[in-house]
């Protein structure tokens, strides 16, 4: 599937879809980075969010996706790169990353100095989509590179390096999470370089689309209990009764996979969800929620056909 079909299925505005098609035709991808144009594991579900994101990117804007855990920020960013047919560059700011990794470092090749290009440099050069993951965790050295990269002049001018022009097709998509303990605010000058999408919390409809797509061999009614489990935990975490540790859609998906290969559902959910809470009081609350949704006596055959 080329991605545009997925947009039509979700009822995305036809004018936007046509313009994405035009964007692709106008911007070829260099042979050496073809392998970076990757189809994501799952389509992103959410018509309105897709429309907002596509319109912004078509206008040459950069996007900042903010929101709680598991709201689909990364899967959206990956889908956008795929839809626009661009090579994707994932850059995580959670680790200690600075201008050397982003722009490049001098290295010796055959007795002369050459710049080993960093990820932002290559993204700019090849017209990639740079996914700036957890951008609010960027250290000062990286922030100054980002300021230059995201500037409207579309030229990266970092002292000590050559000036780099951004390819027409290059875009940057930042993600940030304000749920985790220890996350930082993004500085105002950096925020002003983005259009911002605040990702909504999950609802039953989207959760069921995700689960049914990943587990077509499961019983709908049972998947509803897993979606319900996530929503119960989301509500408890929203009320401040528990942290976001147990609010883990990846954990629920992983649990279902282990059930499919034979593990009892209760044990699977323990590994995927319950044991992620290290606080005993919190773990009790989460166990109680699990018990109301996933009966202890359930086996594989209660979930999979
Ligand atoms: N709207 C959605 N459409 C498709 N998949 C989704 C959606 N929302 C969440 N998911 C799924 O939920 C899981 C977590 O998504 P993702 O990693 O994109 O979230 P995130 O917002 O980046 O979370 P975090 O803040 O933990 O980094 C993935 O398996 C993803 O496929
Ligand atoms: Mg993420």
Bound molecules: adenosine-5'-triphosphate, magnesium ion
Number of strands: 9
Euclidean distance between termini CA atoms:
27 Å
Largest sheet: 5 strands, parallel
Q: Helix count?
A: 14
Estimate what percentage of residues fall within beta strands.
Answer: 5-15%
Question: Radius of gyration over alpha carbons?
Answer: 22 Å
String of helices and strands = HHHEHEHEEHEHEEEHEHHHHHH
The protein's oligomeric status is: single chain
Strand order of the largest sheet: 2-5-8-1-9
Share of helical residues? 40-55%
Mean pLDDT: 92
Shape, per Cα inertia axes: globular
* CATH-defined topology of the largest domain: Rossmann fold
Fourth-level CATH superfamily of the largest domain: P-loop containing nucleotide triphosphate hydrolases
Q: What would you say this structure looks like, in words?
A:
- The protein folds into 2 domains: 4-198, Rossmann fold (3-Layer(aba) Sandwich), CATH 3.40.50.300; 204-303.
- The protein is 44% helix and 13% strand.
- The protein is built from 14 helices and 9 strands.
- It has helices spanning 4-9, 14-26, 47-58, 73-83, 99-102, 119-125, 140-149, 188-191, 204-214, 220-238, 249-260, 265-272, 280-293, 300-303, and strands spanning 63-66, 88-92, 104-109, 112-117, 129-133, 155-156, 164-165, 171-176, 195-198.
- A 5-stranded parallel β-sheet has the order 2-5-8-1-9, sandwiched between helices.
- A hairpin with a 2-residue loop joins strand 3 (104-109) and strand 4.
- It is globular and about 65 Å long.
- The chain binds adenosine-5'-triphosphate and magnesium ion.
- Adenosine-5'-triphosphate binds next to helix 4, helix 9 and helix 11.
């Amino acid at each position: 599937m080329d991605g545009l079909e997925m947009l039509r299925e979700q009822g995305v505005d036809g004018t936007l879809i046509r313009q994405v098609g035009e964007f692709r035709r106008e911007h070829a991808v260099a042979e050496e980075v073809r392998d970076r144009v990757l189809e994501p594991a799952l389509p992103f579900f959410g018509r309105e969010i897709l429309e907002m994101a596509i319109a912004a990117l078509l206008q040459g804007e950069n996007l900042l996706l903010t929101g709680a855990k598991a709201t689909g920020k990364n899967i959206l960013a990956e889908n956008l790169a795929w839809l626009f047919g661009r090579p994707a560059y994932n850059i995580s700011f959670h680790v200690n990353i600075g201008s050397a990794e982003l722009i490049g470092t001098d290295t010796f090749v055959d007795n002369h100095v050459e710049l080993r290009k960093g990820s932002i440099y290559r993204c700019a050069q090849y017209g990639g989509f740079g996914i700036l993951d957890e951008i609010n965790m960027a250290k000062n050295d990286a922030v100054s590179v980002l300021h230059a990269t995201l500037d409207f002049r579309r030229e990266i001018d970092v002292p000590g390096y050559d000036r780099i022009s951004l390819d027409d097709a290059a875009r940057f998509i930042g993600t940030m999470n304000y749920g985790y303990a220890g996350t930082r605010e993004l500085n105002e000058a950096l925020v002003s370089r983005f259009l911002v999408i605040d990702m909504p919390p999950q609802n039953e409809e989207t959760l069921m689309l995700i689960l049914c797509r990943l587990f077509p061999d499961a019983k709908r009614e049972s998947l509803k209990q897993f979606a319900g489990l996530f929503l119960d935990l989301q509500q408890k975490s929203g009320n401040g009764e528990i942290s976001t540790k147990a609010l883990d859609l990846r954990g629920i998906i992983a649990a279902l996979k282990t059930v499919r290969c034979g593990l009892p559902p209760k044990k699977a959910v323990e590994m995927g969800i319950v044991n992620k809470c290290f606080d005993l009081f919190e773990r009790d609350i989460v166990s109680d929620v699990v018990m109301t949704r996933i009966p202890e006596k359930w086996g594989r055959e209660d979930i999979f056909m």
